[in-house]
Amino acid sequence: MIDTTKHKGLRKKLVDELISQGIESEKVLDAIISIPRHFFLESSFEHLAYQNNAFPIGNDQTISQPYTVAFQTELLNLKKGDRVLEIGTGSGYQASILFKMGAKVYTIERHAPLLRKAKLLLQKLNIRAEMRFGDGYEGWPEEAPFDKIIVTCGAPHIPEALKKQLRVGGIMVIPVGEIIQKMKCVIKRDEDKFEIIDFGDFRFVPMLRNKAK
Ligand code: SAH
To answer: pLDDT tens across 130-171, in order?
Structure first.
């Protein structure tokens, strides 16, 4: 795995594009600059890694579009040391961005082969994240509460377990909807009080239930 000057230049161009699309957080943009996205793609897609698109990563899943990663991460308003739960590890790219920003990352994936691959890659890159095979609808109760939760698959509704596992004052960013999803920022104001702010339309692979395999 080599990160060349050319790759770095392409990342800089990608970041300029994200800025023109309205991404403002320096911390998010710095993380995107420092994580080589081409490491997370299959070799046949590697040359496209710095296009602002989603790409297949195997098992019918995709690595999210860089704009989507940046948009969701910006909404999380991360502070160093935040405990962050990610649902949908996929390639491990989003988890790596969170780690780079100083988060303590917990991530769950329901496709064992994807999880295995992501684990190996993150180890190689010295990126630390707690990674687990399981059903994101259940969250990770043993490690709750989380300061932030990010869901990277399209959820039909906001899972109760995730609402419970968010600490009061915490933020969950979750795309909700069947075919097209509305990005929602869920702020936990009190044990049973949630403020929900709607953002634009996005398209994710579905959050599937109880089919961990
Ligand atoms: N964050 C990823 C992109 C993930 S695509 C990245 O940076 O590459 C969405 C992922 O969510 C897929 O890998 C899919 O298998 C996973 N997923 C779908 N439903 C899930 C569930 N119920 N629990 C955990 N993971 C789920």
So the answer is: 999 999 999 999 999 999 999 999 999 999 999 999 999 999
The predicted-structure confidence for 57-69, as pLDDT tens digits, reads as follows 998 899 999 999 9
Q: Whose CA is nearest to atom 21 of ligand 1?
A: 136
Give kind and range of the element (H or E) at residue 167.
strand 166-176
Separation CA 212–CA 147 (nearest Å): 25
DSSP 198: E
Best residue among 109, 131, 140 to mutate for probing ligand 1, ranked by most atoms within 8 Å of CB = 109
Against a cut of 0.85, is the pTM above it? yes
Pocket of ligand 1 (CB under 6 A): 61-64, 87-88, 90-91, 93-94, 108-111, 114, 135-137, 152-153, 205, 207-208
Token pair listed for 119: 């684990």
